[in-house]
């Protein structure tokens, strides 16, 4: 007498396949943060605090992003076309202030 576990395993696998990319990534972003993709050619994903949105330096960066991409972001999240080093410099200075 045994249980037929393969059906349960198959159900879990099909459920995972039906989750959309945005549902999966939104789970990985903590409350009070948002995801951005940074890079000129190769994009790297960063999770940053929402509090950055009120900083004037970050707002200037977002204005430049709007000029470049408008509201169409091919990665599914905000895409920032600057070097990773420049982004890290900006975010580390925001975290210190």
Protein model, in words:
A three-stranded mixed sheet has the order 2-1-3. With 97 residues, it is an alpha+beta fold. It has four helices and three strands; from the N terminus they run H-H-E-E-H-E-H. Helix content is 49%, strand content 15%.
Key features of this structure:
globular; three-stranded mixed β-sheet; alpha+beta; 4 helices; 97 residues
Which helices and strands occur, and which strands form pairs?
Blueprint: H1 5-18, H2 21-27, E1 33-38, E2 44-49, H3 56-69, E3 78-80, H4 84-96
Parallel strand pairs: 1-3
Antiparallel strand pairs: 1-2
Short description:
The protein has 97 residues and is an alpha+beta fold. Helices cover 49% and strands 15% of the residues.
**Low-confidence segments, ≥5 residues, pLDDT <50?**
5-21
Question: In which range does the helix fraction lie?
Answer: 40-55%
The SS-based structural class is: alpha+beta
Following the backbone from N to C, one meets helices and strands in this order, namely: HHEEHEH
Q: Taking strands numbered 1, 2, ... along the chain, how are they ordered across the largest sheet?
A: 2-1-3
- List the total number of helices: 4
What is the CA-atom radius of gyration, in angstroms?
19 Å
For the termini, the CA-CA separation is: 65 Å
Strand content: 15-25%
Q: Work out the number of β strands.
A: 3
Average the pLDDT over all residues and give the rounded result.
76
């Amino acid at each position: 007498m045994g249980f037929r576990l393969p059906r349960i395993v198959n159900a879990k696998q099909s459920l995972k396949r039906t989750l959309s990319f945005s549902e999966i990534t939104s789970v990985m972003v903590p409350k009070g943060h948002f995801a951005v993709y940074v890079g000129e050619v190769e994009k790297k994903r960063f999770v940053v605090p929402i509090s950055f949105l009120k900083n004037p330096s970050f707002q200037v960066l977002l204005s430049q992003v709007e000029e470049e991409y408008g509201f169409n972001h091919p990665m599914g999240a905000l895409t920032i076309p600057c070097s990773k080093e420049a982004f890290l410099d900006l975010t580390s200075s925001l975290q210190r202030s």
